[in-house]
Amino acid sequence: MRTFLFSLLSLAATSWANLNVGEKSLFRRNSTGLSDVVTWDPRSVSIFGQRIFVLSAEIHPWRLPGDPKLWSDLFQKVKDNGFNTVSAYISWTLHYPSPNTNDGHGDFEAETYRDIQMFFDAVQEAGLWLIARPGPYIRGGFPGWVENIGGSLRTDNANYTAAWLPYLNTVAQLISKNQVTEGGPVILVQAENEFSASSVNSPYMQAVIDTHRANGVVIPITHNDQHSGENGNFSPDLPGPGQVNIYCGDSYPQGVNSWAQVQSVYYSFHEAVAFSNPLCLAEFGGGFLLNWGSEPLGGTGYEKYSLDLTDADYENVFYKDAYAQTAKIVSESSDVYSKPTRSFMPHTVDIYMLYGGTNWGQTAAPVSYTSYDYGGGINENRVAGPKMNEMRLQGLFLRVSRDLFGALPLGNGTNYTTSALIHTYKQRNLETGAAFYFLRQNDSPSTALTTTQLIVDTSRGTLTIPQFGGEITLNGRESKILVTDYVFGTNQTLVLYSTAEIMTWSTIDTTDYIIMYAPPTQTGETVLLFASEPTVDTSNAPNVNSTYSNGTLILQYLLDGIQFVTIEHDNSMLVSIIMDKTVANQWHAPVLPGNGAFGNYFSIGSNETVLVGGPYVVRNASIAGDTLSLTGDLNGTTTIEVISPSAVSRLSWNGADIQVHKTSRGTLTATVIVNQLNLTLPTLANWKVTGSLPEISPSFDDSNFTLADQTETNYTNLPPLAGSQVLYAQQYGFYGGNLIFRGRFNATGSETAVNLTVQYGFAGGYSAWLNGVFLGSSQGNATVSLSTNVWTFPDGVLEKGAENVLVVLQAIGDNSLSETSTNGGKEPRGIRGYSLIGGNTTFSSWKLQGNQGGAAGAPDTFRGYLNEGGLFAERIGAHLPGYPDDTWARGSPLTGFSQAGVNFYRTTFNLNVPDGFDVPVRLSFTPSAITSNFRVQIYLNGWQIGKYINNLGPQTAFVLPAGLIFRNSSNTLALSLWSLDAGGASIAGLEVISDGTFATALRFEEYQGPDYEKQKNLRPLGMTQTPIP
């Protein structure tokens, strides 16, 4: 039975003051029983006894390929733009290429994408908390070898337990030593991922939880349930094994192709299944996942989200609506209070993805392609877009508005405004009286301009605001959080109400500053309470009118640029800064660090900030003596304006002193000149080419290939359809990339064709040759994962009375990962059925080859086993810098070739970017005719950074990652071009393009992976092959 103590609220007619706020709702603060550093109740999570709103950015370590030092770039941008937490998957697949990697302790090689300790350290250095999400299952799946075990996955199957336990023991120990209780950043740990309770699932879930606890994890354990948290799987408030401490839901509320109505379900679901918890949205859509072929060719495909469906307007409407939502709300009229429910607004929200990054190599999940941009606020090339400005405005408000954390829902509907077109949520903190009104269009996709007034209950009675002229404007997809009885600053000034939103407030020296904003040309009205008339200076606020009457100071204004209103009262000073939203988008509030392990954490280690206007990014701020030192990025010549302590008279930007001027409004300004970077992006020319499919020749020496001699399989759900040997690549240690199969048979002369069923995964495909002669190709798409074909043998190809060789080149369309969304995670890759037509001949043997050495013995342990596939050029290391290509022919992928098969191309280029600049670049393909069926793998300095499928798409622009590209020395670019058509293929165009130029505080290093010379003894000898003409 659910038991809570509620306040008894007497009915009141006109004022919240008539509420007995002293009889406030009481809630037991929960802990794990192992530590009280992180606690929770229905209101919020608390850290060291302080309530916080967990606003989290989802970022995955490996999806920023190359130099892991650039994690700090992302985290500093996250912190600057209002977030206080990072949420991160840890991938079993990447750390355990085989069951016994490093004697069961896994691969966490230092200073690589697998260095999770370095990831944790970078999060903490930025002053961010961390939510660790180690699975064992994560979106994208399991290591390929896990599929080979007998029985089901993600159950209490003993074979599966033996598979995941070494991984989770290792990772849980790593998490344990990085918990906040140990001075680290980790505050929450998620068990499993989007998982449902059952008789076999729940014991497994309990074992995952027990494993964390046995390895020293004492902080709360969470779970993210699908369907917006409707079902209560593993909730602490429902019976059964596998209960976590804090239950969360996942939601992707936007329409896939058009704007959707907001979802008003979160707290009604939450109230039904997890009433003792704060509302937690563990994944809230920052964009959406796109599949192969889901959009027309062009860009990454994700522009559909970042520029439209999940743009800054989406954040403005959908995120604020999520903050506002409550459980089953008791309706409240404008003049009578009803008893509120015990519900509270969401206090843990994770934006998935804030930075999506890149699915390089074979790291993509089934159905998805190279770009994992997701439409996030920080794009795949690390550029913080307009969405981040909106998040900064929201995040800075949330971090200083602690009265909101304990606010109760008092109603929602269209009866709070004079226009029925506007929907309002109302919340009030019964302890302080502060209230929060969340306004949006009732029809949330509406693009109409709607004006209204809002009916609010305040300490001065029920008011219809604005009172003194003007209206509240919602221009289409716009939302506002408006406050009443909002107290801020050391002087405890009370905002009776404001029709402009509050961005943030800060006390600097003894002056309280508050920033309010609204879109340009809108009007605002803010009323503050003073016992006596203050002195008001509007000389720096030409569009502000000030009036004092009956204890209220009324500010009326037009939003145009930036305006400062200085107010003095009883030896205290406050400055109201009124900005239009385009200006507010350029202002930042960096934390001035305090002392100790958590000195850079707002509210825990420091409440000190400065206010900075102008820069694209502000990474860090500190004060020493009379100098304010700022580091950050600019997107051009910029005037910087700062509000800082009076002792500051000098300003340093990225280590260089800049001349400052003091303005009439008391700020310091300085102009930082960014000289134009006359960078000419390289032209890709001087290509060399070699053939890369010698295996189709009957005389090819395949003695080092793996003999496919297994006759049994644990893929009982998808058993072989024909043939005596099992040709599933996972059973032979190959988990990703291209595969080559060579089958032999002695022909009687009666054979006329071969019947093949190839299981290649979504968007995969294959080509087949007999004795070096092309038979044909077949391929799938985003919904087709296998093909069955009969290939007729051309006249004269079959060698009667002799050995014949059938070669199948297979492209695995997705990756090395086992994904439970298809066939319970048990879906093989390889030839599922094979038989000869005509006569009774069978294949005498099969051999196969994937990446050199397979997963367990890959020669390139630095880049990892997911970097390469089974093409000849990959196996010999021709994709690596320094490979000797002197004997290769001249030839360009733009010319291509005229037969089915594979050629491999190499060139070099220089970027020549000077220090102090960040120039994110991409490789852009001009699509060939959609009827041309070809596939390209892209290698940069030895790293496979993209897969292009001409007839499928949608991606045509591929990030050349800053962590891999050499800025001032020669880069090696390599392409494999595979034509699945008898007529061959060519690429219509290739060019290097840029996402922009930024003057930056970042210091880039050339991240040198092992070149060919360091690996040549681990690879086959690379004989030059004649390219396909």
Question: What do these coordinates show?
Answer:
The chain has 1029 residues and is mainly beta. The protein has twelve helices and 58 strands.
Mind telling me the C-alpha Rg?
31 Å
Helix content range of the residues, please?
A: 10-25%
Q: Would you tell me the overall average pLDDT?
A: 93
> Shape, please?
elongated
Strand content: 25-35%
Terminal residue distance: 77 Å
Outline the biggest β-sheet: 8 strands, parallel, barrel
* Number of helices in the DSSP assignment: 12
Q: How many beta-strand segments?
A: 58
Q: Reading side by side through the largest sheet, how are the strands ordered?
A: 4-5-6-7-8-9-10-11
Helix vs. strand class: mainly beta
GO molecular function, one term: beta-galactosidase activity
InterPro entries: Betagal_dom2, Betagal_dom2_sf, BetaGal_dom3, BetaGal_dom3_sf, BetaGal_jelly_roll_dom, Galactose-bd-like_sf, GH, Gly_Hdrlase_35_cat
Pfam family, one: BetaGal_dom2
EC number: 3.2.1.23
Characterize this entry briefly.
With 1029 residues, the protein is mainly β.
Task: For the structure shown, list the relevant keywords.
disordered N terminus; BetaGal_dom3; 12 helices; mainly beta; single chain; elongated; glycoprotein; 1029 residues; Galactose-bd-like_sf; EC 3.2.1.23; 11% helix; Gly_Hdrlase_35_cat
